[in-house]
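tokens incoming
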């Protein structure tokens, strides 16, 4: 019996029991849908984060306090108070870092903002005006800080659009009003436009204050959580990194580079790290989703065994008419593989549809720059795994069918 006739016979068998065929492939459909969904959303998230990091420019360098972690447990060995005001002052000196175009000290933390009887938990960012240039976000109402306000630790604040919605009425004049953070009244001088999530920062739900004010009145610290440096030209990035390291090592009396209490990251390094983390996470979630394929394969094997028992008389009749053991084996194997391949195709279509719908919601409703990404490799992998599952879990039922004695099969009622 040729392969074309085997496929035709297998399709006839599947059509005869449509409901059972659908229930048989349900596990495969769910598994492949989950795989496509995870891979698509994972790629979309990765594109979003990497795009936002890249938008900060290749001339941006981050200086982070503490020893660069070599693993999760090593993060406990960092020194979070190693970056001080003297470091900022020395880095701004042309004699130390000649190609530095700008520097932004950052302090941040989570606090409650209150106004009258309203309270909202938010993130406080202590920065200077350089943040507007770095993140390309400027107040749509009001203004940025003045140099005098930063130097004098003025109690002024720029708020995100969500803060405005949570603490004020829609028709209320906000500029000039005050909100309280840790018993400190902050006067609102600006309101940021709605921007959505930027990498790991949500400016919509943030309070931006002068870093001097944040240190003195909100967090009560004399160090920085991070420094962001911009280089004058991209070709000078490597030299600037070395200048920063030399300056900070001199300030911190470090002679052994293995004992640095800070580390420097470029945007390229951050993008590489984010890409690695996202790929690992996507792989892990995909592996978890793939477990359902094994469950689906066991279900297919059980249903195929039931089908073999129900079709015993048919098997005996076909053998009596000249069908060989190989013909019967091929027919049931093809049926099993067709079931899983059809399940894989349905799963791919459902996964792509759900991913597109979620991407649309994230981009339109949540205002994220989220793009739909169809994982071609995931689709090919899904089809291949589906066929493999059908082959592996279909062998035993198919072999049982092929070994049936034609005389006993014809007697079966």
């Amino acid at each position: 019996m040729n392969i074309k006739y085997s496929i035709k016979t297998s399709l006839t068998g599947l059509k005869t029991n449509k409901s059972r065929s659908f229930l048989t492939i349900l596990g495969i459909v769910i598994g492949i849908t989950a795989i496509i969904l995870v891979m698509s959303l994972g790629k979309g998230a990765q594109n979003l984060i990497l795009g936002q990091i890249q938008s900060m420019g290749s001339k941006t360098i981050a200086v982070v306090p503490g020893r660069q972690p070599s693993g999760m447990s090593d993060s406990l060995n960092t020194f979070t108070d190693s970056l001080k005001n003297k470091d900022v002052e020395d880095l701004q000196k042309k004699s130390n870092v000649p190609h530095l175009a700008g520097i932004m000290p950052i302090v941040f933390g989570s606090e409650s903002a209150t106004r009258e009887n309203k309270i909202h938990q938010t993130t406080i960012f202590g920065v200077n005006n350089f943040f507007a240039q770095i993140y390309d976000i400027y107040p749509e109402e009001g203004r940025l800080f003045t140099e005098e306000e930063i130097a004098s630790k003025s109690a002024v604040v720029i708020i995100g659009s969500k803060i405005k919605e949570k603490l004020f009425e829609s028709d209320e004049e906000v500029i000039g009003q005050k909100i309280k953070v840790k018993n400190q009244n902050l006067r609102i001088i600006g309101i940021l436009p709605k921007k959505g999530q930027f990498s790991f920062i949500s400016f919509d739900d943030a309070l931006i204050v002068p870093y001097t004010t944040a240190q003195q009145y909100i967090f009560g610290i004399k160090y920085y959580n991070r420094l962001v440096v911009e280089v004058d030209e991209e070709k000078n990035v490597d030299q600037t990194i070395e200048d920063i390291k030399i300056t900070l090592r001199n300030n911190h009396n470090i002679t052994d580079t293995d004992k640095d209490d800070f580390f420097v990251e470029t945007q390229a390094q951050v993008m590489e790290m984010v890409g690695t983390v996202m790929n690992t996470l996507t792989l892990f979630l995909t592996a978890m989703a793939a477990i359902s394929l094994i469950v689906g394969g066991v279900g297919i094997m059980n249903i195929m065994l039931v089908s073999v028992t129900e079709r015993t008389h048919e098997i005996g009749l076909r053998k009596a008419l000249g069908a060989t053991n190989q013909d019967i084996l091929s027919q049931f194997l093809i049926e099993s593989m067709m079931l899983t391949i059809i399940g894989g195709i349905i799963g791919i279509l459902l996964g792509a549809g759900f991913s597109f719908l979620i991407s649309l919601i994230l981009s339109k409703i949540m205002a994220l720059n989220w793009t739909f990404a169809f994982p071609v490799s995931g689709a090919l992998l899904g089809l291949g795994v589906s066929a493999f599952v059908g082959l592996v879990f279909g062998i035993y039922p198919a072999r049982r069918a092929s070994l049936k004695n034609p005389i006993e099969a014809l007697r079966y009622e």
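note: The mean pLDDT is 80.
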